[in-house]
Specification:
The protein has helices spanning about 1-50, 55-65, 85-90, 95-125, 130-145, 145-160, 170-175, 180-190, 195-200, 205-215, 220-235, 240-245, 250-260, 265-285, 285-320. The protein is about 80% helix and about 0% strand. The chain has 15 helices and no strands. It folds into 2 domains: about 1-85, no CATH class; about 85-310, Orthogonal Bundle (MetI-like fold).
Length: about 325
C-alpha cells in the first residue's frame, strides 16, 4: 500500500512539474512575441536608414508622399548602403546645430535640477518648517498638471522677463520641475534617522550632513532623476514648439519632422543617431534607475506598514479594554 501511495505521489509530482514547465514555456513565448512587437519599429527604422533613395521610395513611398497605396515591409534592405549616414554626418550642418541645441537645453535643465531639486528634496525629507504640507501639496499639484494647463501662464512670464525665443525659455521651466523633487524626497526620507543623529552627535552641521551623508546615500535617486530628465527633455516637443520661433534654436525633436519632408533617407539615419545618446545612457544607468525607483517605493511601503501596525495595535488595545 505504501509503495502504491509513493508511486501515485511521484506521478502527481511529475504531472505538476510538466504543467509548470509548459506554463513557463508558454509565458516565455508570449514575452518573446511582445518583445519582438516592441522592437519591430526600431528594426524597421534601422533597416530603412540603410536603404537607398529608390528602394526607400518603393517601400515607403505611398506613405511618405501622402499618396494612395500601402507601405511595404522589409527588415533586410536589398541593397544596403551607408550613403544616408555619410550625408548626414558630413554634409548636414543644420542637423548638428539642432543636435547641439538639444544637448545644450537638456544638459542645462539637468544641471539646474541638481542645484535646485536635490536641496529642495532634502529639505522636504529631513526638515520641519511652517507651511511644509501646503508647499508639498502645491508641488504635487504642479506635478500632475499637464503642460497645456500651464502653457499660457508660462508664456506670459517668459515674455515678461524677455526670455522668449531663447534657450532659457526651455531651460528655466524645466529646472523647477516637481517630479525630481518628488522622487528624491522619497529617497532621502528612506535614509535611517540613526545615521543623521550620529552625525549630529559627532558635531556635523546640516550642510555637512547633506553633502557627506545625504548625497552619497541618495546617489541612486539622483541618477534616476538625471536619467528620466534626460529622456524627457531630449525628446521634448511642446515647450520648444511653444517658446522657440527661430529655427536656428530648434532642438532635434522639432528639426527631424522638417527633415523628413525634404531628405527622407537622411531623416531615417538622423532618427537612429538621435536614439543613440538616450539608449546608451539608459543601458549604462539602468541598475541605478531601478535602485532609485525601488528606494522610493520601499519608503512608502514602510510608512503604510507602520500605519497598518499602529491600527492593529490600537484595535487590540480597544478590545482588551472592552473585555
Amino acid at each position: 500500500m505504501e509503495q502504491k501511495e509513493e508511486s501515485g505521489m511521484e506521478r502527481s509530482n511529475g504531472r505538476d512539474r510538466r504543467k509548470q514547465e509548459a506554463i513557463q514555456r508558454g509565458t516565455g513565448l508570449i514575452v518573446c512575441v511582445f518583445c519582438f512587437l516592441t522592437a519591430l519599429p526600431l528594426l524597421m527604422l534601422f533597416a530603412d536608414s540603410l536603404m537607398g533613395e529608390q528602394e526607400l521610395l518603393e517601400t515607403c513611398g505611398a506613405v511618405l508622399s501622402g499618396g494612395e497605396g500601402q507601405a511595404g515591409f522589409s527588415l533586410f534592405p536589398l541593397y544596403p548602403t551607408l550613403r544616408a549616414y555619410l550625408r548626414l554626418l558630413l554634409d548636414s550642418p543644420e542637423y548638428f546645430t539642432a543636435f547641439w541645441n538639444a544637448m545644450f537645453q537638456t544638459v542645462g535643465v539637468l544641471l539646474g535640477q541638481l542645484l535646485v531639486a536635490v536641496p529642495a528634496a532634502w529639505a522636504f525629507a529631513r526638515f520641519c518648517f511652517p507651511g511644509k504640507k501646503a508647499l508639498w501639496f502645491l508641488y504635487m499639484l504642479l506635478m500632475i498638471l499637464p503642460f497645456q494647463v500651464t502653457m499660457v501662464s508660462g508664456y506670459l512670464v517668459l515674455n515678461k522677463v524677455h526670455l522668449m525665443d531663447t534657450h532659457g525659455a526651455v531651460i528655466l521651466p524645466g529646472i523647477f520641475s516637481a517630479l525630481p523633487v518628488f522622487i528624491l524626497q522619497k529617497t532621502f526620507a528612506g535614509i535611517p534617522g540613526e545615521i543623521i543623529e550620529a552625525a549630529r552627535i559627532d558635531g556635523a552641521g546640516s550642510v555637512k550632513i547633506f553633502l557627506e551623508i545625504g548625497i552619497p546615500l541618495g546617489k541612486s535617486g539622483i541618477f534616476s532623476i538625471l536619467l528620466l530628465g534626460f529622456l524627457e527633455y531630449w525628446n521634448a516637443i511642446e515647450p520648444p514648439m511653444t517658446y522657440l520661433k527661430t529655427k536656428s534654436l530648434w532642438p532635434l525633436s522639432l528639426y527631424l519632422p522638417q527633415m523628413a519632408n525634404s531628405e527622407t533617407a537622411s531623416a531615417f539615419a538622423a532618427s537612429v543617431v538621435t536614439l543613440l545618446p538616450a539608449t546608451l545612457l539608459f543601458f549604462t544607468g539602468q541598475e541605478n534607475l531601478e535602485q532609485g525607483i525601488v528606494a522610493s517605493g520601499v519608503e512608502r511601503g514602510k510608512k503604510e506598514g507602520q500605519r497598518s501596525t499602529d491600527r492593529f495595535v490600537s484595535k487590540g488595545k480597544g478590545r482588551g479594554s472592552a473585555g
